[in-house]
Backbone:
């Protein structure tokens, strides 16, 4: 694997709307991010991925873009964005924007023009089909529920939207569309961006000609995945995009890739891959069901371990994964991956270390460094996220009681990650002086940045130590490029692996409340990290405390 500038970095995802509000309108904004750059630099992160802040009706919170060349006024101005890039650069930090090009907004000029003249130039920017009475062009279910087709306003046509109806799919088969996209990417890269996180990219290639598939629910529709499985030839699009844009700038591009096959890894993230990296979603998708959230199976510590190790084995030395515990589409990792009732400072630190020390680029999602947790949802009316509303409906339709349905969606709701960042124990967690756009998690009085920054033993301080360890010149080579070898893979509720390079590091986490013992294969030189103040070791046997995690430098 060729070495790249981003390999030894630590990335941090910002959800601008919920990060920090600088002007009291209840919505986080770019000046707010600028004012927190020192906080981020102090934590030690270097790459900042911003969820979309382009002009948008915010039907899907900015993943529906109406102007790719403008910043939404709720988030600030283009000058603010330029200042953010410049201020980040002063601190040796890189900004990634979110590249949302599978679809745009129905309020984008292209779509408006397509409505005016579906047979003209802009009609070909989208997937349009003649409307037929009583039947949609295909029986595909959109990701956010219901048929993936809607009437093209003012015409006798329908358009495809694999996501929300306010997110019409762009027709990548049309070279003009691709030109527009590359032009925009390069325009942004010319402004000095470090690169992009590439949204929903697996959807850009559709199986043509369009046809129906076997329905898989009582709505007589079928999952989009079935169509995507059949679609061949995405590589040509992705290769062209890479060559025309990222490659010329040596920009970092991380793909939101799902369901890749093992044989596709080299094409995606190998030395000549389409992307610099892609996220490992193995843990996040574990237990998910085609039926909906209500049918999902919870993940156990042993499953979690297996998911991580499988992903690592699949990629090996071919490329560089991006590792996450959570993002803006997932519930909080500490609420999901730590068994019920056991979410505490120790277990949060254990999860952090086990994930952070994997081979790949660690991404921290805002608030993860504080151990932020899922928010209690008491009524569906409190929920903002469109996907949560859909899943609630799906659960009810499957005969689940309203109480149970609410419990289910509370567990998986994307709102869990989108509640405002908890800065202080003051009103609204110090996020805004106004009314926050989404309810603040009531636990902000005990979980907030101000308190944790003063506390050596906080989750925040532990993340800081993890980051410092990755950057320590002595261990960096091993942590960034060393191999990963699972140890005691069969031991229940224990996750352990070696990172081997210039040194041999042993990362071991006791993924349960009760103590358990391990016998060290060799003696150790040094304890590099420990979430407890001591380590109970006698003659090479370590008695790990509940949720204890250790990083040991071993004698080779
Ligand atoms: C990606 C984004 C998600 C969005 C979807 C449609 O999965 O992460 O937030 O809803 O794409 O753009
Ligand atoms: Ca604001």
Residues:
């Amino acid at each position: 694997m060729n070495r790249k500038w981003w390999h030894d970095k630590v990335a941090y995802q910002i959800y601008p709307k919920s990060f920090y509000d600088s002007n009291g309108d209840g919505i986080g904004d770019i000046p707010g991010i600028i004012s927190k750059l020192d906080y981020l630099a102090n934590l030690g992160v270097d790459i900042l991925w911003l969820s979309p802040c382009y002009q948008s009706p915010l039907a899907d919170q900015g993943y529906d873009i109406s102007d790719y060349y403008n910043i939404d006024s709720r988030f600030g101005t283009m000058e603010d964005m330029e200042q953010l890039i410049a201020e980040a650069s002063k601190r040796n930090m890189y900004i990634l924007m979110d590249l949302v090009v599978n679809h745009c907004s129905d309020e984008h000029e292209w779509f408006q023009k397509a409505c005016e003249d579906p047979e003209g130039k802009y009609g070909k920017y989208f997937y349009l089909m003649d409307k037929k009475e009583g039947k949609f062009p295909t029986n595909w279910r959109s990701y956010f529920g219901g048929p993936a087709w809607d009437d093209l306003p003012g015409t006798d046509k329908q358009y495809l939207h694999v996501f929300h109806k306010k997110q019409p799919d762009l027709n990548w088969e049309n070279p003009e569309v691709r030109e527009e996209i590359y032009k925009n990417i390069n325009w942004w890269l010319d402004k000095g961006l470090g690169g992009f996180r590439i949204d929903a990219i697996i959807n850009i290639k559709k199986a043509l000609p369009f046809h129906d598939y076997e329905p898989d629910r009582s709505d007589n529709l079928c999952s989009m995945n079935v169509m995507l499985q059949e679609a061949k030839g995405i590589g040509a699009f992705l290769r062209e995009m890479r060559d025309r844009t990222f490659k010329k700038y040596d920009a970092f591009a991380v793909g939101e890739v799902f369901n890749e096959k093992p044989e596709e890894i080299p094409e995606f993230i190998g030395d000549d891959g389409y992307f610099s990296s892609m996220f490992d979603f193995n843990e996040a998708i574990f237990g998910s069901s085609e039926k909906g959230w209500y049918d999902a199976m919870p993940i156990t510590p042993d499953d979690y371990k297996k998911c991580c190790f499988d992903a690592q084995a699949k990629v090996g030395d071919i490329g560089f994964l991006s590792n996450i515990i959570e993002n803006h589409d997932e519930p909080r990792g500490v609420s999901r991956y730590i068994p019920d009732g056991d979410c505490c400072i120790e277990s949060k630190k254990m999860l952090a270390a086990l994930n952070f020390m994997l081979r790949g680029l660690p991404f921290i999602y805002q608030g993860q460094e504080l151990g932020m947790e899922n928010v209690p949802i008491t009524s569906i009316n409190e929920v903002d996220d469109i996907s949560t509303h859909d899943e609630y409906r799906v659960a009810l339709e499957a005969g689940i009681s309203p109480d149970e349905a609410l419990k289910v969606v509370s567990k998986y709701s994307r709102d869990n990650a989108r509640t405002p960042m908890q800065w202080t124990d003051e009103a609204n967690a110090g996020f805004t002086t106004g009314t926050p756009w989404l309810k603040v998690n009531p636990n902000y009085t005990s979980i907030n940045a101000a308190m944790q920054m003063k506390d050596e033993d906080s989750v925040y301080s532990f993340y800081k130590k993890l980051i410092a360890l990755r950057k320590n010149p002595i261990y960096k080579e091993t942590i960034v490029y060393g191999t990963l070898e699972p140890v005691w893979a069969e031991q229940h509720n224990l996750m352990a692996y070696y990172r081997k390079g210039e040194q041999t590091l042993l990362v071991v986490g006791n993924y349960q409340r009760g103590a358990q013992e391990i016998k060290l294969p060799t003696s150790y030189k040094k304890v590099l990290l420990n979430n407890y103040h001591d380590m109970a070791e006698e003659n090479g046997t370590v008695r790990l405390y509940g949720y204890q995690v250790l990083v040991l430098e071993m004698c080779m």
Remarks:
- The longest strand covers residues 494-500.
- Residues 11-104+175-461 form a domain with the TIM Barrel fold (CATH 3.20.20.80).
